Amino acid sequence: MNCRRNFWLKMVIVSCYSHLRKRDLGEKKFRVFTPLRAVGLSVEKGWKLSKTLGLASVTAEHVAQVRISGELLVKGTKAKDCELQLKPRDAPLSVALLRAQRALLTDLKVNVWAVDQQDSGGGRTYDLLGDFGVAEQNWGVTGRVWVELKVYSEGTFQKWVDKEKQKLAVDFSKKNRADATLQGVMLLAASVPKASEGQWGIPKLQAMLKVSGAEEWVSLSGGSRRVARGQAKGTKIALGKLWDKLEWHQGAGGERVALLAQLLEELNLRADHPGDRAATLNVLLRQGNKKGRLVQTKLKLKSGRRPWVGTKDTLRDCYHYL
Question: In degrees, to the nearest 5, what angle opens at C-alpha 61 toward C-alphas 60 and 67?
Answer without folding.
Answer: 100
